[in-house]
Amino acid sequence: MIYQEHEKTIYTPPGSSTAYDPLAIDRALTIKSSGTINSLLSDWCAGSDGKGDVSSGSVEANSLRVAQAEEVLVQISRAVFNLPPFPECLDATALEYLRHYLWWMEGKGQADGKPQ
Fold it and tell me: What's the pTM value of the predicted model, to 2 decimals?
């Protein structure tokens, strides 16, 4: 297998001194999510797209799906990044670790973590 440079670059989240192997993070995200990481992210992001049917049943179903995805993503992020439970680490912090890592990978390992 040939790996890309960003897959061979050590990842360190902002404000942290902990170094991570990007391939290990990818594996852990896949394993901890039972292979559903992409659908969880899609459901979670659907809560902020402002699209779709606005009938109350649809909004309630969407809100529930978003909340369930967010809860699972927080648990996965805490496990993958070895983050402590609340109150030492807020859910928002756990989600920021995950979000920054995904931006970093999308940006191919750029130091600022912003996609190209």
Answer: 0.78
